[in-house]
Amino acid sequence: MICFFLHRTLPFSELVKRANEKKHEQYFLNAEEKYYLRSLGDDPRKDVADIRSQFPELSGDIHLPIYCSSDRVFSCVLRIGSPHVQLWTHYDVMDNLLVQVTGRKRVVLFNPRDANNLYLTGDKSRVLDIDSPDLSLFPRFSRATRHECVLEPGDVLFIPALWFHNVVSVDFGVAVNVFWQNLDEKLYDSRDTYGNKDPLPAQRAQQILDRALKTLEELPDEYRDFYARRLVSRIEEKSYMAEPS
Fold first, then answer.
1. Is 228 exposed, middle or buried (0-12, 13-18, 19+ CB in 10 A)?
2. CB–CB of 18/30 below 8 Å?
3. From CA 227, how far away is CA 236, in angstroms rounded?
4. What mean pLDDT is reported for the chain?
5. What residue spans define the domains of the chain?
6. Membrane-spanning residues where (predicted)?
């Protein structure tokens, strides 16, 4: 199955109406298309999403337990989705609470230690169908341990930073995400309005690795293989790569 999405603008009431329909009289592509809203800042290039600013009439209905000081809260995101809308497996760099307001949502999580089994491109997994994966393309995915739950209206799920999650709306649903900065503020990318850019030291480390790999390409195959294995070995020897006891 080939799936793709388009960005379109609708009045809020029309979006809610269409997202809650099984079949549409008015549509963009076909009568069974799905709808998904992820709220943005007033200026998406500069401002983060905050339900208190973008939807002030709704913000009073959301009461969250206090897990961090208010100055650490990064964003408060409103999400509305049609039944069966799925968000691909990805990680965020901040802790967050997923608050299910209406409808049900299936959430599948993977530990950060499974990163090498998820075939990442950036912060996303290339394994789109996690229920029936093509193991001829993604053989290591079978090693990944999944943790699954279904959120009912009123449920709140804590998703720690770096934990991978795949989310499917079982029904028409409304949810709110609250992200907060659990690291020192100076470690985050100040240009990041979505809260999903890697911390600055991690970005620098990946850039250094990219340059190292490019440098190794100057060597013949057997030398390139040997020194690449030495680099991998040095990383694996670091204490932060050790398995938990």
1. middle
2. no
3. 14
4. 91
5. 12-197, 203-241
6. none
